[in-house]
Design brief:
single chain; 273 residues; alpha+beta; Helix Hairpins; SH3 type barrels; Alpha-Beta Plaits; 3 domains; five-stranded antiparallel sheet; three-stranded antiparallel sheet; 7 helices; 8 strands; 19% strand
């Protein structure tokens, strides 16, 4: 009976010593989870209001939620009386090792976050970077997917993409189409300029303001080069570019304006003995 009495005394002592801590820890756990839930709702509304990319929203929400819950659990364990110094040191060492092993992956993740936050391009844009060109099909956390005009898929790591020079052809609503047409030195410059002006004026896709520009750009070795600069909607750029090349060739042929090709004249001089 004495042993039972001692056990009961110890149990009561433990209950008085740890009971309040345990109750407080449980209250902290439930209240903390409730606050984290409210915080997640507020973060979701804030990210929706800021129009952050949907794929980034879910990832950031999950990451922040996991971090807050980890801190809450550590706080609860400390409140109960569990020594956390060694545990935190082990977690820090493990985190450092994992970070070093996944340095490339973390770089791509950081690059993906930067791209999704600052939006140098979006899905559907046509971009050129690192020697590749294509339409952005998808922006993921670690990679960006491009599709080339001949339907080839290119996967670019976001780490290198976010830190490299890039040309985005889709950000501006209008673009300037530049042409250079060569005519022979014996051809009439004014006639060639009128042909070009008429062709440009007939194309409804070419804007009247800013007005198209036509001028002699160079007296080359084999030709007089005329430059044509016209503004179009970005979506019409390639259509106007290819159509105009064909129309100019046909019209020059019809109007008797030559398009010379590089040639060399060789003159032989005979000298008497």
């Amino acid at each position: 009976m004495e042993n039972v009495s001692n056990i009961m005394d110890k149990a009561i002592s433990i209950a008085f010593d740890y009971g309040p801590k345990l109750i407080g820890a449980l209250l902290l756990l439930f209240i903390g989870l409730w606050i984290i839930k409210l915080f997640n709702r507020w973060m979701r509304k804030l990210m929706e209001k800021a129009d952050i990319e949907k794929s980034l929203r879910g990832f950031l929400k999950s990451m922040i939620s996991a971090l807050l819950k980890t801190l809450l659990i550590i706080s609860v364990m400390v409140m109960v009386g569990i020594e956390m110094t060694s545990f935190i040191a082990i977690l820090a060492a493990a985190g450092l090792a994992v970070g070093m092993a996944l340095s490339g992956t973390l770089q791509n993740f950081a690059g993906g976050v930067m791209i999704l936050l600052f939006r140098p391009f979006k899905a559907g844009d046509y971009i050129s970077t690192q020697g590749f060109s294509g339409t952005v099909k998808d922006i993921q956390i670690f990679n960006t997917i491009l599709t080339t005009p001949d339907n080839v898929t290119i996967i670019l790591p976001n780490g290198s993409l976010s830190g490299s020079a890039m040309t985005n052809y889709s950000t501006q609503p209008t673009r300037r189409v530049d042409f250079t047409f060569g005519i022979g030195y014996e051809d009439d410059i004014d006639k060639a300029k009128k042909i070009l002006a008429d062709l440009i004026g007939e194309d409804q896709r070419i804007m009247k303001d800013p007005a198209p520009f036509i001028a002699v750009s160079e007296l080359a070795d084999s030709s007089v080069n005329l430059v044509v600069r016209a503004w179009v909607n970005a979506s019409d750029y390639w259509g106007v570019f290819f159509d105009t090349q064909e129309k100019v060739k046909k019209q020059f042929d019809t109007q008797g304006v030559s398009i010379p090709f590089p040639q060399t004249d060789v003159h032989l001089h005979q000298t008497g003995k």
